[in-house]
């Protein structure tokens, strides 16, 4: 385990739980240069904790794989050393700080025939796993990811900290190249962007709106998408899934608009409000022509499922559910969003307020 900070400790916990459950994995060691974190990890997990990867690799230990959970700026250096040493690597999102670094990691993994999996754990959210059979050419996405401010992960902006989860998921569902990006973002309580609103249009005609904030008064994790004859709502936090389908008796206007891919915002708002009980009568007794379905979602911890998926890829040598290429694609879109936000700041005369991104 590379990194024993806040998220590294979660990984350590999961690996130890899997070890105790007899799932064929042993937590061998950790790396963290901070003496306090190192001591805590040694005490809590009864493993040696080294100050550097060099010390770890020089020790007489049997190592098959490693997880990297350190600040993004160090992802490339840490993962590179591990891949060169012949280890399979799970690296927290984003896969790297730049596309050049991401490409180099992918090349190293290929050269050394190693597994490289980016840590997009929301892909393993049970609600996201359960929604896959519901996909029918989605044409409009709305993603909201809001958090209360904490002094954590401030080495990156809200796009790479929070929004990248939804970028990755929508990219996997839209399955189309990006055509255009519009984005606005502002730093509020930190030197980097804390709140952002983004609109992405795909070559297929699909459109996605993303809102991410780490300066909210509430915690929200939701994704909604609209496709021919159905509306799907995913609540990441509750691991909940709702599908509203149009039956044969639905009005011709609504059926024609959605079936043809011409998504009317007024119709979408009506259906979305229905999910929240905002349209009279729809929540308690659905209108004729609309069926409300709650697909079964088997509860589970996304991080545990992610680690289990990584270990399965290590054992079988099969491509992981979330590939390094997909991690690179999510990073590429995130960096394009950052550049678009910088351009908007200059047009709006916000140069003194908006600090350009270092990526």
Quick synopsis:
The protein has eleven helices and 13 strands.
Fold topology:
Layout: H1 6-20, E1 30-31, H2 35-45, E2 49-50, H3 53-58, E3 65-68, H4 75-84, E4 88-92, H5 99-111, E5 116-119, H6 126-131, E6 140-148, H7 158-174, E7 178-186, E8 195-202, E9 207-216, E10 220-227, E11 230-235, E12 240-246, H8 252-259, H9 265-275, E13 290-293, H10 302-316, H11 324-347
Helix pairs in contact: 1-10, 4-5, 5-11, 7-11
Domain GFO/IDH/MocA-like oxidoreductase: 148-219
Pfam family, one: GFO_IDH_MocA_C3
InterPro entries: Gfo/Idh/MocA-like_OxRdtase_N, Gfo/Idh/MocA_Oxidoreductases, GFO_IDH_MocA-like_dom, NAD(P)-bd_dom_sf
Explain how this protein is built.
38% of the residues are buried. The strands form 3 sheets. The chain has an 8-stranded mixed β-sheet, with helices on both faces. It contains 11 helices and 13 strands. The two termini are 26 Å apart. It is α/β, with parallel strands linked by helices and 359 residues long. Residues 275-286 have low confidence and may be disordered. It folds into 2 domains: 6-122 and 302-322, Rossmann fold; 130-293, Dihydrodipicolinate Reductase, domain 2 (2-Layer Sandwich). The protein has helices spanning 6-20, 35-45, 53-58, 75-84, 99-111, 126-131, 158-174, 252-259, 265-275, 302-316, 324-347; strands at 30-31, 49-50, 65-68, 88-92, 116-119, 140-148, 178-186, 195-202, 207-216, 220-227, 230-235, 240-246, 290-293. Pfam families: GFO_IDH_MocA, GFO_IDH_MocA_C3. It comes from Telmatobacter sp. DSM 110680. InterPro entries: Gfo/Idh/MocA-like_OxRdtase_N (IPR000683), Gfo/Idh/MocA_Oxidoreductases (IPR051450), GFO_IDH_MocA-like_dom (IPR055170), NAD(P)-bd_dom_sf (IPR036291). Residues 1-120 form the Gfo/Idh/MocA-like oxidoreductase N-terminal domain. This is Gfo/Idh/MocA family oxidoreductase.
């Amino acid at each position: 385990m590379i990194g024993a900070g806040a998220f590294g400790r979660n990984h350590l916990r999961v690996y130890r739980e899997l070890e105790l459950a007899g799932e064929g994995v042993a937590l061998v060691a950790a790396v963290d240069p901070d003496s306090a974190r190192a001591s805590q990890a040694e005490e809590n997990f009864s493993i040696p904790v080294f100050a550097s990867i060099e010390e770890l690799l020089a020790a007489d230990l049997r190592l098959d794989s490693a997880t990297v959970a350190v600040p993004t700026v160090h992802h490339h250096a840490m993962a590179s050393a591990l891949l060169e040493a012949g280890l399979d690597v799970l690296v927290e999102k984003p896969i790297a700080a730049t596309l050049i670094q991401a490409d180099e990691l992918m090349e190293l993994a290929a050269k050394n025939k190693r597994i490289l999996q980016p840590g997009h754990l929301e892909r393993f959210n049970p609600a996201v796993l359960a929604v896959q059979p519901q996909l029918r050419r989605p044409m409009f996405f709305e993603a909201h990811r809001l958090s209360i401010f904490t002094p954590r992960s401030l080495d990156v902006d809200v796009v790479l900290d929070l929004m990248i989860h939804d970028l990755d998921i929508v990219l996997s569902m839209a399955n189309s190249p990006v055509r255009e990006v519009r984005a606005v973002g502002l730093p509020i309580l930190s030197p980097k962007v804390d709140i952002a609103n983004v609109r992405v249009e795909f070559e297929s005609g699909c459109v996605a709106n993303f809102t991410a904030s780490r300066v909210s008064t509430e915690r929200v994790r939701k994704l909604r998408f609209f496709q021919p004859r159905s509306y799907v709502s995913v609540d990441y936090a509750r691991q909940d899934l709702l599908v509203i389908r149009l039956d044969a008796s639905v009005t011709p206007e609504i059926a024609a608009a959605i079936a043809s891919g011409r998504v009317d915002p007024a119709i979408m708002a009506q259906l979305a409000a229905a999910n929240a009980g905002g349209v009279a009568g729809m929540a308690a007794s659905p209108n004729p022509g609309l069926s409300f379905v709650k697909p079964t979602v088997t509860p589970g911890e996304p991080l545990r499922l992610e680690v289990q998926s990584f270990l399965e890829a290590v054992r079988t040598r099969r491509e992981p559910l979330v590939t390094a290429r997909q991690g690179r694609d999510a990073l590429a879109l995130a960096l394009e969003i950052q550049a678009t936000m910088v351009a908007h700041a200059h047009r709006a005369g916000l140069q003194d307020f908006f600090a350009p991104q270092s990526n």
